[in-house]
Amino acid sequence: MLYWCEGDKPSGRNYTVGVTSSDFFVIRAFLGWLEKYYDIPKARIKLRLHLWPNSNEGEAQKYWAKKLDLPMSSFTKSYIKERSGKNNKYKNGICRASIHSTEILSDILKRIEREFC
Known about the structure:
By secondary structure, the protein is an alpha+beta fold. It has one domain (about 15-110). The chain has helices at about 1-5, 25-40, 55-70, 100-115, and strands at about 15-20, 45-50, 80, 95-100. Strands 1-4-2-3 form a 4-stranded mixed sheet. The two termini are about 10 Å apart. The model has no long low-confidence stretch (mean pLDDT about 90).
C-alpha cells in the first residue's frame, strides 16, 4: 500500500524504485521494507531533497541523514524549487529515497496488481 500511494510511478525507461515524503517515518518504513523483503543494503539507497530558496541545504541533509541513519554520501543533487517562493511548512524539505532496479520495480508492480487490481 505504501508504494502504491507514495511510490514513484514508472515512466518510459525509468526503473527507479522510490518514495517521496516530508515524513521521515514514511521514508524509514520504505527503507526497512527494501531491506527486509529485497535485501537492499543502505549503501545502495540514494536520497534527493526537494527544497525551497529559503531552505538550508546542509542542515536539511543533516536532518534527513540522522533521521534515516544514512551517511551524507547518500545524497544526490538537491532540487531547489525557485518559482514557488518561500515554504515554511517543510523546513527540511521533502525527501526522495530511491534505488535503481528493473527487477525489483517489476516485482513490486506485479504484487500490487495481483493484490489490489
